Amino acid sequence: MRIESLSSIDPQLIGRLENFCAFTMAHPRLLAARDQLMDAIDGAAPGSLVMLLGPTGVGKTTLRAKTEHHLALQMEQVLASDRGRLPFVSVEVMAPENGRFRWKDYFGRFLMAMAEPVINRKVIRLPESSTCDPPTANPEIANSSSSDLGYAMERALRYRRPQVVFIDEAQHLGRIASGRKLSDQLDVIKSIANRTQIVHVLLGTYELLAFRNLSGQLSRRSVDLHFARYSVDNPEDRQIFQNILLTFQKQLPFTEEPDLHNLWEYLYERSVGCVGILKEWLVRASIASLKHGSVTLSLKDLENTALSVSQCEKILLESREGEAQLNDREDSRSRLRTLMGIGLPATQNVEHTCVQTSTTKAKKVGQRRPQRDPIEGAMSACG
Prior knowledge:
Rossmann fold; 51% helix; five-stranded parallel beta sheet; alpha/beta; 383 residues; 2 domains; disordered C terminus
């Protein structure tokens, strides 16, 4: 929000607008997702990966901030006695400018998130078992290599000992050069998590689904969490969404409180049930309305600042596709049980046994089938 553009507005209204921008609502789905994430962090084995997926604008960054606050409170006494320790480390994976993800940029941003000094002066490491003095930084070195920064990041993590590492916008890890495998990207994260014994949480859109189940080892070491949007098909979700609108309208910076409840269908339509999209939209509409001197938020201002139909349709299609892949349907469970050979009907078990028996008792080449041989004189007696 650009405060300079609102200089003609009553300072008191600007203050209320700033408060609204900073306001984060602890709605039921956000709280449930935070509790699930905390349970996953507390219950995961050291060095595990947690993937939190959801549609764009659902509130993943807000969820991360609330989880970070909870972790800081949880470790308050520990941090008071250990000044060098961090409760968490958060880094956002930036969308690469040239379309290709670079680990050097990621490691550098990670070190900055930990306030690591002289990031551009990191030098080639010695083996940890070496008894020699570590090399000093060469003043002529302009930039450290990717491997040097990666090693420095690992050492900083071991020293700082955060409980968890948050990697926001993790879907950008998939922007890789041609010829590289997607599994290589996640192997780097998994290797860092394993060597530092720190849980890594990857937060991202449904594009992260491409990272799921790349190998059996990754499947064993990772946990999937779904932060879903509110669905209008669910009566409970519909009621919660309407309650969220009532809470937002009381926080809006107007002298006259708008009636968002009567507009809930339109507000749901253009937010696709995502609270993050809804909040950003209300901020845009409020700024436009205040600049026009309105005393309340009008439908016209909402229409002028809403996402287009095509934008909402794109978000909805991506959401439905991701939701379908994440839902464990009965046919998926049946397929798993069939592959494991459990839960088959009795008739199928009998047929399965018969096939195996006939296979194990197959006759050798040239061996006669059992039959009754004719007895001399029997044919004439029967005739």
